[in-house]
Design goal:
Length: 96
């Protein structure tokens, strides 16, 4: 059954690309970034939650708001930090 399903699957790449372009997918990456800078996880989570709420209220993506307004550490983020390919790359861990 699985073999038949895989053989006949049709991917809707336009939908996949739209979903991947959602910068909210990188919210946990932002919290992880703050933790790596020494911010306690609970505080990092709250900082990112405030940024997410602000973006939603402004009807914007996370990469469209000034994240440095929520933490000065965010001024150190590369401009493409929330690009879909970078979010995926940070999660792509291969264990050997």
């Amino acid at each position: 059954m699985l073999r038949l399903s895989v053989r006949t699957v049709m991917l809707k790449t336009d939908r996949l690309e739209r979903a991947a372009a959602d910068s909210f997918m990188g919210a946990t990456d932002l919290a992880d970034f703050l933790v790596m800078k020494g911010v306690p996880f609970r505080a990092a989570h709250e900082i990112v939650a405030r940024a997410v709420r602000a973006a939603l209220q402004e009807n914007k993506q996370l990469n469209e708001i000034d994240l440095a307004a929520f933490s000065p550490f965010f001024s150190q983020l590369p401009a493409d930090y929330l690009a879909p390919e970078n979010i995926v790359a940070r999660k792509n861990h291969v264990s050997q």
